[in-house]
Amino acid sequence: MRPMQESIKIMYFANGSEEPFVEIVTVKQQKRRPSVCSSADSESEDLLPVLVDHSQILKEHHLEQLMNHIPARTQGYPWKLVYSTAEHGTSLRTLYRQMAEIDRPVLMVIKDSDNQVFGAFSSDPFKVSSYCYGTGETFLYSFSPEFQIFRWSGENSYFVRGFLDSLQMGGGGGPFGLWLDADLYRGSSYSCDTFCNRPLSLHHDFTIQDLEVWTFI
């Protein structure tokens, strides 16, 4: 899913020269979108991903940071909203149900009651499972207060595990890197061996204001 590239040969003559100079220019063919907030003439906004649906959480600066850190196979593709508390209500069961037919990576975005934004990228859609799933592409991230990304440490493979009453990400003999309850109302975040992360929110325990899950189409 890496954006395609093509090479263009440009020939031109320098002043006083009878032989042409040849320059090879690589052009990246990438899907582009207008800015979330400003005019369509800026170079930076051309690089933002296409959001097929409206986001209650994501702003332009969130998109700029996240798009540079998601795996190459997901870059250059539109983002589609799979689940949101604003649209589907606050239920972990509904979140799982919305992803039942998806076989692509997903990006979770959380806004808590302190207006802090953080979340996780999962190589696999969230589901109920009797075992941990996911790959080393999975990571946690936070904008609280500045953007940080926490990738797989290699210590263990406790990437994601889904229960009917909770969703867990990261672990290793202690608290989870990210934990959400069945009502998607309360959550917690602690340092864990899987990602060697710091807590994603300002407080270990937080209240969810909005939650969205996006995939790449």
What would you call the shape?
globular
**Helix percent band:** 10-25%
Largest sheet: 10 strands, antiparallel
Number of helices: 4
Proportion of residues in extended strands: 25-35%
Radius of gyration: 20 Å
The averaged pLDDT comes out at: 85
Report the order of strands and helices.
Answer: EEHHEHHEEEEEEEEE
* SS-derived structural category: mainly beta
Separation of the first and last Cα atoms: 10 Å
| Total strand segments | 12
Domain unit count: 1
Low-pLDDT sequence parts: 1-17, 20-45
Task: Summarize the helices and strands and which ones pair or pack.
Elements: E1 4-12, E2 21-29, H1 43-46, H2 60-67, E3 79-84, H3 85-88, H4 92-98, E4 106-112, E5 117-122, E6 139-142, E7 148-150, E8 160-162, E9 166-169, E10 178-181, E11 186-188, E12 205-216
Antiparallel strand pairs: 1-2, 3-12, 4-5, 4-12, 5-6, 6-7, 8-9, 9-10, 10-11, 11-12
Organism: Anabarilius grahami (Kanglang fish)
Pfam families: TLD
Domain TLDc: 56-217
Concise structural overview:
The protein is mostly beta strands.
Tell me what you see in this structure.
Keywords: Receptor. This is Nuclear receptor coactivator 7. This protein is mainly beta and 217 residues long. Helix content is 11%, strand content 32%. The N and C termini lie close together (10 Å).
